Give the backbone structure.
Amino acid sequence: MNSLNKTKLYTSISLDKSPQDGNLSNQIPGLVRSFVAGDEADFATLVRMFRRKVYLTAHKIVGNHLDADEVVQETFVRVYRRRNELARIKYFSTFLMRIATNYAIDLIRRRKMYRDYDEYSGHLPAAVQIEHSKRVNTPGEDYENKKIMEDIQSALDRLPPRQKLTAILHDVDGHTKAEIAVILECPEATVRSNLHIARAKLKRMLRHRL
Amino acid sequence: MTCRKAAQFIDDLVDGELSAELKLEVQRHLDLCQKCRIKSVDSYHLKFILKTFSVPEPGQDYFIGSTELILSRIFGRSEQVGGVH
């Protein structure tokens, strides 16, 4: 891949698609440089630019608000602690999404271990979870739409972590296979294979929706 | 083209990643084979419904509070850093 294409590739995955943040995307390399040099305000700006993107991808992977929130918090704290690595890493968003997806997968595995050990029902009292969920907006109030979303989430949750992650990054979030290979640090052929298997499983699980 | 061969290309067809020549070849097979045609429609529809998949999005208050917590954990204080949110 030539350097121009590479630049285009990474520029496309570095953008937070929300309009208020998109116009800041050209500033990312400069913000990263000054953040690495110790500018706290520029780190705060990067958090604001990418927090929504990290949250939405994390929520699709972990399946609930509380865990997605944990992924967001830990991702940015880890990015800060590992800031010296950024001097050697050209593309901030790839570095960020790699940390976020790795943490989300670890979280799923830990939750599964906990659930296997002792029926996991959330780490907060039910009343707190219910009250908290009232503060989170649900875009689709339509019952059937909600059912479809639940079915998709349930089907995705039944995939092994790497297949789930590949399906979410490609088919839900719209990343290309080349971008996913960079984020997951694996060959593009592995991305293709995982995607193919994930889709075959999803087709079976969502048969009634097709 | 055989059904087995066509099945290998359905994902790429749905993703729009087939060369024009191969696309035409697969298309010819789908015109003749109902079973593969249904499979490709299923694949396309799966991609469509996954694209519509969304999760509940918290309001701006959540993101502001979350950012404050992150900055507080890192810098050990809770005041706003870097101006407006």
In short: The helical segments of chain B are 3-14, 20-32, 34-51, 60-75. The interface with chain A takes residues 11, 42-43, 45-47, 49-59, 61-63, 66-67, 69-71, 73-75, 80-83, 85 of chain B (CB under 8 Å).
